[in-house]
Write a structure and sequence with these properties.
The protein has 458 residues and is an alpha/beta fold. The protein folds into 3 domains: 148 residues, FAD/NAD(P)-binding domain (3-Layer(bba) Sandwich), CATH 3.50.50; 148 residues, FAD/NAD(P)-binding domain, CATH 3.50.50.100; 92 residues, no CATH class. The protein has 14 helices and 24 strands. The strands form 7 sheets. A 6-stranded mixed sheet has the order 3-2-1-7-20-19, covered by helices on one side. α1 links the parallel β1 and β2. α1 runs parallel beside α11, α6 packs antiparallel against α7 and α12 crosses α14. The longest helix is centred in the last third of the chain and has 37 residues. It is elongated. The structure holds flavin-adenine dinucleotide. Flavin-adenine dinucleotide (FAD) binds next to α1, β2 and α11.
Length: 458
């Protein structure tokens, strides 16, 4: 395949890669841009729980790249990248095709990590992409269906027990979501909803340990007990094997078995194999094998290559692997690519950690804003959903990050006036108001759209 000399290739259309491409388009980047992703759809992972629970649809949570990039000038290629030749500046696809690049953006994220636990890869269900949400949904429906028709109480209990491995944010959000909607599904099948069990198993004695959300622990612990069915917690337990019909773990030196047909695995992440296989020495990687990048997000030995999001770590300033870091790094990479093309100086990426948002069941969430204020319940849910709704990348012609307006213009402005709780509360009221306004406006537009559709039909 022949290529022009000046061609930027982005591998991975997640938060880093897609936002790099969208920003480049807005900056009228003078070089051709190719975005390669193995999937045809962007996956807004923080909202995967809403997609799973039916609170949001696939158009919102997993929009098509072709639609998002229409009119952007970015060429989208749906293909799996098999290897990268850093010396010859080439990207090789599993189809056998190859792309040359003058600049490369590595944005492949990370993969599920199973820590060599026996049977975990084969028998546990991961929750990472849209296909995983669909697979878990189907599996749970089958289990509930079988439970309804089972007369043996032991088998029924096994079918109605769902184990969630990992007490990090993903495990907590998953357990809370399941504990709210599974009992309703089962009751709708005429089952006894009180027979449904959701069990959260965690290696440490504390959930959310060492996580950016750790200050929401107490709130999360309380909320987990207030779901439609309370969540059972098995803490300080090391999972040693996953079988199709049971989970084995060790606690206090004892081996214990939890009979269950459903183990959902949220326990860990691992470095992407493409990243592992790059000929980058250990001194330019962190302990987990992620790539160390300069403050301008370049590989030290290959300055034409940028990397951001979950697959990279900034030297001396490691940031949590989150969507908010990834999309801000995407914007910074775009700025530096444009600067490179124009011969300008590159700038270090600045990332603001604006707070954390944790889904704690249906229509319930906790929001921690700038470590100053915690908002829970329905308002927390509105702030979380509104923030993410506004972050959803829209087709390029109306791409504008209203969330950044909410975060930067409102929060930063109020906090700049003095970091007092009072100003933060005022900011929250405004954010809450803005979010509710946005949601209401959307609802209104949707209703008007529906009305137009029905009047078109009549
Ligand atoms: C269930 C879940 C919930 C989460 N919730 C939150 C949250 O509430 N808040 C938060 O801040 N963060 C959350 N995160 C973390 C956040 O989603 C990630 O930190 C973020 O997506 C990282 O962005 P990224 O661009 O590095 O990678 P990703 O967004 O993972 O994108 C990587 C892209 O690369 C593509 N790709 C991978 N391999 C190849 C290949 N070989 N060839 C071609 N394409 C490839 C993938 O298809 C994918 O589109 C959550 C993650 C998960 C899994």
């Amino acid at each position: 395949m022949s290529n022009p000399i000046y061609q930027t290739v982005i591998i991975g259309g997640g938060f880093t890669g897609l936002f790099t491409a969208l920003h480049l388009s807005h900056q009228h980047y003078p070089r051709s841009v190719i975005l390669i992703d193995k999937n045809g759809r962007f996956c807004f992972k923080p909202l995967l729980y809403e997609y799973f629970s039916g609170e949001m649809d696939s158009m919102q949570v997993t929009p098509l790249f072709t639609e998002l990039l229409r009119g952007s000038g970015v060429i989208f290629v749906q293909a799996e990248v098999e290897s990268i030749d850093l010396e010859n500046r080439q990207v090789h696809l599993s189809s056998g095709d190859c792309y040359n690049y003058s600049n490369l953006v590595l944005a492949v994220g990370s993969v599920t990590g199973y820590f060599d636990v026996a049977g975990a890869k084969e028998s546990a269900l991961p929750f990472w992409m849209q296909k995983d949400a669909i697979a878990i949904d189907r599996h749970l429906h089958k289990c509930l269906e079988a439970a309804i028709h089972t007369t043996d109480p032991k088998t029924r209990r096994q079918l109605l027990t769902v184990a969630v491995v990992g007490g990090g944010p993903s495990g907590v959000e998953m357990a809370a979501t399941l504990a709210d909607f599974l009992p309703h599904w089962y009751a709708a099948m005429n089952g006894n909803s009180q027979e449904v069990r959701v069990v959260l198993i965690n290696r440490s004695e504390e959930i959310l340990k060492g996580d950016i959300n750790s200050h929401l622990r107490e709130i999360a612990e309380n909320e987990l007990q207030k779901r439609t069915i309370p969540i059972e917690m098995i803490l300080g337990a090391k999972v040693t094997a996953v079988l199709p019909n049971a989970l084995e773990y060790q606690r206090d030196g004892q081996v214990e078995i939890l009979p269950t047909y459903t183990t959902i695995w949220t326990a860990g992440t691992a470095t992407h194999p493409l990243i592992q296989n790059l000929p980058i020495p250990a001194e330019h990687r962190d302990q987990r094998g992620r790539l160390q990048v300069t403050p301008t997000l370049q590989l030290p030995d290959y300055p034409e290559v940028f990397a951001g999001g979950d697959c990279a770590v900034v030297e001396e300033n490691p940031l949590p692997p989150t969507a908010q870091v990834a999309y801000q790094q995407g914007a910074a990479i775009a700025n530096n690519l444009t600067a490179t093309a124009l011969g300008d100086d590159l700038k270090p990426a600045t990332v603001n950690i604006r707070g954390t948002l944790l889904k704690l069941g249906l229509h319930n969430a906790a929001a921690n804003i700038f470590d100053l204020l915690e908002v829970t319940g329905e308002l927390g849910h509105l702030i979380r959903q509104g923030t993410y709704l506004e972050l959803l990348p829209t087709p390029v012609h109306n791409f504008k990050a209203t969330a950044e307006w909410i975060n930067d213009e409102i929060l930063q402005r109020y906090l700049a006036n003095g970091d007092t709780e009072k100003t933060a509360i005022r900011a929250i009221e405004l954010v809450g108001g803005a979010v509710v306004g946005v949601l209401a406006a959307r609802k209104l537009l949707q209703m008007l759209g529906d009305e137009n559709k029905s009047s078109d039909k009549s």
